[in-house]
Structure to design on (229 residues):
């Protein structure tokens, strides 16, 4: 006989990056983080901040896998989360009901959670805005979930086309969310200085009237471009 799974399977202990590594990502635009990872690492474009007023996010991922129209695992993640963590709720992009609303997010804020990210939907927009917690989601719906499980907490999930492990660093702004794998965080930070310098140099040239970057101009003038007009 096949046994029913437990309602919740929770892995409470996982490695977190050092606090100074996490804080070093504060204020870094998501686009620069992605550039420092080779141009990839951002969640699906549908996952955006619910409120522009609360659209800055940096923290360590605490992952949970919620079933369709169910959020029991979210309470397990709330139990495991430490101050400064970001709760990541994977729903397989379920669109029939919200995975959470303002009351649970208020509890998360009270515990010191830094933000909430889901590939699903949320509800109670006015209440969430009053909570003030950065929330990234795929949309809004008033339908409510059940709390029946099964669900998991503290395991690797796939959300928004990106694999997220507990302990990864999430960086969010109005462009969306980037996922920095924990073991790559120092290397990403090391590349950021060069990314910032190159972007600042190009921004200066644009303000001074630049119309075409040198690399593109070189291609256009080379035999690798054919004009057919």
């Amino acid at each position: 006989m096949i046994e029913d799974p437990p309602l919740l399977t929770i892995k409470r202990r996982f490695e977190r990056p050092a606090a100074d590594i996490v804080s070093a990502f504060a204020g870094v635009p998501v686009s620069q983080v992605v550039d420092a990872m080779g141009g990839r690492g951002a969640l699906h474009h549908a996952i955006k901040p619910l409120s522009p007023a609360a659209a800055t996010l940096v923290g360590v991922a605490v992952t949970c896998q919620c079933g369709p129209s169910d959020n029991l695992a979210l309470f397990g993640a709330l139990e495991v989360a430490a101050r400064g963590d970001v709760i990541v709720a994977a729903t397989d992009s379920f669109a029939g009901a919200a995975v959470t609303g303002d009351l649970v997010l208020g509890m998360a804020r009270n515990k010191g959670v830094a933000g909430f990210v889901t590939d699903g939907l949320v509800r109670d927009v006015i209440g969430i805005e009053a909570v003030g917690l950065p929330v990234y989601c795929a949309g809004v719906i008033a339908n409510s979930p059940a709390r029946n499980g099964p669900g998991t907490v503290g395991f690797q999930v796939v959300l928004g086309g990106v694999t997220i492990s507990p302990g990864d660093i999430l960086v969010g702004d109005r462009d969306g969310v980037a996922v920095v794998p924990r073991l790559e965080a120092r290397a990403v930070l090391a590349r950021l200085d060069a990314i910032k310098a190159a972007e600042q140099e190009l921004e200066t040239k644009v303000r001074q009237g630049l119309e075409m970057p040198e690399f593109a101009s070189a291609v256009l003038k080379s035999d690798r471009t054919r004009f057919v007009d």
The longest helix spans residues 185-207. The chain has a mean pLDDT of 95. The domain at 8-183 is CATH 3.50.30.40 (Glucose Oxidase; domain 1). The helical segments are 19-23, 30-35, 72-80, 102-110, 125-131, 185-207, 214-221.
